[in-house]
Amino acid sequence: MSGTSLDGIDVALVDFADATPKLVASLLLPYPSELRQQLAQLAQPGDNEIERMGVAESMLAAAYADAVQQLLAQCQLPAAAIRAIGCHGQTIRHRPSGPHAFTLQIGDMHKLSALTGIRVIGDFRRKDIAYGGQGAPLVPAFHQAIFGTTQGRCILNIGGIANVTLLLPHQDIQGFDTGPGNCLLDSWVELHTGQRYDANGAFAATGRLQPALLASLFSDPYFSQTGPKSTGREYFHLPWLQGHLTGFDLPAADVQRTLSRFSAGTMALAISRFAVHEVFVCGGGAHNPVLLQDLAELLPSCRISTTSELGVHPDWVEAMAFAWLAYAYDHGIAGNVPAVTGACRPCVLGVCFAP
């Protein structure tokens, strides 16, 4: 999995022999700076996009193959031991609404299969869109499979964009993208410190909350929409933030502090509309104590923890989800949830690329 944070490639080796999927091993391969920069640029309209996309796809496939091979070497396993690679690809554009809705995840799956000698299951999102869905989020089906409960439980994935899965008693599974998770926090801290992310929320912790800016950020119409809904960094990006900063003259740390409250607030706003008693966090945001403290203050009636309590480290939940989607493809299991994505029917998702 390589998500909207653009931090790198998460690889999870998952064993499905038993009823409960087992994480065997994992690895994070950070993106090389050149590839990360190219992918970030492709998320926005620009010159010569097709040429740049083709180059990035090839580079990305090589990076995916490198990550897989490193993990296999770590486990001392041959390629023949692996049934399939479930590969999400890197989203560079997500336009799920309108008469010509589309979503685009790049990464040359044929090249990945050729370099590794392993079947690849990819292109998971577009079939859901073909049947009228948003193509996202897709992780709720996996969350239900491994975290399902009769209690009011929310799985909150805080990546670049945050999404929720709502597992409620006597109700169908629900879920949607809540809005920015880490993407604005990461972009702002990188702009002002050169660091790719705000480690432990340290930069935010030095700032002061600015209520007027917070109110401006919340004025975006996305937050008044009900699901199904999904979004991406092509919408919530640095120019979007800078538009809201017009007329403000604030220290950079104050903006970062306010962005933390804003991200937590959009998640809390979404969760508070449901009868949820416990929230289990996964994704990179699970390591940001300022963000989690904001979330706890805004959801005082909910117990906040991470998916570690449920037996899955928060860093690997999403990569495991795409391994599960590959498993679902092989076994004819629907990978989407129509109530979540808005598709008109359940679909087996993915396309197979054989070596």
Descriptive report:
This protein is of the alpha/beta class and 355 residues long. It folds into two domains: 8-135 and 316-353, 2-Layer Sandwich (Nucleotidyltransferase, domain 5), CATH 3.30.420; 140-310, ATPase, nucleotide binding domain (Nucleotidyltransferase, domain 5). Helix content is 38%, strand content 18%. The chain contains 13 helices and twelve strands. The protein has helices spanning 33-42, 49-75, 109-116, 126-130, 140-147, 183-193, 202-205, 211-218, 238-244, 252-271, 289-298, 317-330, 338-341; strands at 8-15, 22-30, 85-86, 90-95, 102-106, 120-122, 153-158, 161-167, 174-180, 278-282, 303-306, 351-353. A five-stranded mixed sheet has the order 9-8-7-10-11, with helices on both faces. The protein is globular.
Question: What's the quick description here?
Answer:
This protein has 355 residues and is of the alpha/beta class.
Low-confidence blocks of residues: none
Lateral strand order in the biggest sheet: 9-8-7-10-11
Shape: globular
β-strand amount: 15-25%
Kindly report how far apart the N and C termini lie. 20 Å
The CATH level-2 architecture of the largest domain is identified as 2-Layer Sandwich
- Please give the radius of gyration in angstroms: 19 Å
- Average pLDDT number: 96
Would you report the number of β strands?
Answer: 12
Order of helices and strands: EEHHEEEHEHHEEEHHHHHEHEHHE
Helix content: 25-40%
Keywords:
3-stranded mixed sheet; 2 domains; 13 helices; globular; 5-stranded mixed sheet; 355 residues; alpha/beta; 18% strand; 38% helix; Nucleotidyltransferase, domain 5
